[in-house]
Structures are given as C-alpha cells and as structure tokens.
Amino acid sequence: MNVVERVAFLVDKLNLSPHPEGGFYSETYRSDVNIGTNSGKRNLTTAIYFLLTSENVSKFHRIKSDELWFFHEGSTLTVHKLTEKGHKQLSLGIPSSGNNTAPQHLVEANTIFGSSVDEPNSYALVSCVVSPGFDFADFELFEANYLLEKYPDSSSIINKLT
What we know:
It comes from Algoriphagus yeomjeoni. Helices cover 15% and strands 46% of the residues. By secondary structure, it is mainly beta. The protein has a single domain (3-160), classed as Jelly Rolls. Strand 3 (34-37) and strand 4 form a beta hairpin. It starts with a helix and ends with a helix.
C-alpha cells in the first residue's frame, strides 16, 4: 500500500475529518467528568486521532490546556513551539541513536504551537490527549503578522505554519 492509499485508508477507517488547524482528526474520547476552569466547565480529558501529511501543516495555534502527543506510525513529526526563548522543536516518532526523537511529548497549556511532517511524501498518525479537555472556545488560531511582530527571529517557521 503506497502513502496515498494508506492515508485514504486511515481517514476512512478512523473516521477522520478535516481539522481547522490542518490535517485530519477524530475525537475518540471525552470524559463524562466535568471540572471548573477559568474558562468555565470543561471535560476532565479528551483524546483524538490526528493525521498530518507532508503536503499540509498544523498551523500555529494555542489552547488553554496541556496536550500530550503520542506517535503511532508514519514519518517523524516536529512539534514547533513559540516561546519567550523563541522557536523550540519537539521531535515525535520512534527513537533512534543520535536523535532526540521520543514517542511522547507534552505541549504545555497556553503555548503557541503547530506541527509538520519531517519526510516528504509521507504522513504521521498520532494521538493527542488534552487535560482539561479540549473545547473549541479555548482554541486560538494565529495569523502571520501577529506572530512575526512578537517573534521576528522565527520568520521562516512562522511563514510555513500560518
């Protein structure tokens, strides 16, 4: 099965839909337990499958909760974070000698981040667990102009992920 066929299979089999930030997703879990947050009541935890191809990116966005990323298959994926120290990268995939790749990473609450697939003509299938649970009311997508003003030394990645 080639990459195009595998992506089509996964989109169908996992019931994935286009995500506003890029890529495809399907919610797989939403806790019945609710908790109070500064933004109102939220589910304790949510989980999704998230599939990204090398032809698209996950645009820079921010949520108000911690998000754990878990690698399943495909190419290594880079999670790009914009912090007060500038552009930071997390490599998500199968570890090998000589790299800092890990099968799990945390993106802390209120971090501006996006992601991209490392290998051309490929894809990455991951899961993301958000706690407190994801709510689109807590989702903020960023425009290039805003980020370029705030992070002028990161223009290359900002232009790629906006």
